[in-house]
Amino acid sequence: MSDHILIAVFLPTFFFVSITPGMCMTLAMTLGMSIGVRRTLWMMIGELVGVALVAVAAVMGVAAMMLNYPQIFEVLKWVGGAYLGYIGIQMWRAKGKMASLDNQSTQISNQALISQGFVTAIANPKGWAFMISLLPPFIDVERAVAPQLSLLLMIIMMTEFVSMLAYASGGKSLKLFLAKGDNIKWLNRIAGSLMIGVGFWLALG
């Protein structure tokens, strides 16, 4: 798979999944409203490190298995594609509620903010399942894994940071927009449709 195809398919899919309201995005918005965007950047650092760790662990673990058992790759493609389709259907059926978080203290330290972001990223089982399902099929084991993984990580880190910054900066206006009508529902449906499409593409590709 060429890098251009990878970017063309992976970037919009991960962006819409990333921008969909979840624990990390809601945390960024809540902190942005309570302690300001500048201090919320500390939480983002921890979250990005956590997401990168999950992505690397998912790819390296599955890639190592694929090198030893190449036939598993075909099964992995179908299982991963089916799981992504399942996620897409679940997103379509979601009722569009914001994730709930406790009120954040304005006295929290920078170190605590980093830890909060890191723990939020690595403690999310859905995040692990998503990375294990989506990332490995984009890795060609016949080529050097490190450059491919670096490109995927660059896309992931960029989209996560842009999404969190948007939520933190949007504050009350973004919260009102998401709470209005069916806005979250349609955002979920866009992301869900992309997930279903990529699921078919991975399984049949």
UniProtKB/TrEMBL annotation:
> Known Pfam families for this protein?
LysE (PF01810)
**What topology does the record note for this protein and the membrane?**
Multi-pass membrane protein
Q: What is this protein called?
A: LysE family transporter
* InterPro entries noted in UniProt: LeuE-type
PANTHER family tied to this protein: ARGININE EXPORTER PROTEIN ARGO (PTHR30086), HOMOGENTISATE EXPORT PROTEIN (PTHR30086:SF5)
Where found, per UniProt? Cell membrane
Task: Give an example GO molecular function.
Answer: homoserine transmembrane transporter activity
Does the record carry Ion transport as a key word? no
Keywords of the record? Cell membrane, Membrane, Transmembrane, Transmembrane helix
Q: Which GO terms describe its cellular component?
A: plasma membrane
Tell me which species this is from: Shewanella insulae
Query: Keyword Ubl conjugation on this protein?
Result: no
Q: Which residues cross the membrane?
A: 6-29, 41-69, 75-92, 145-166, 186-204
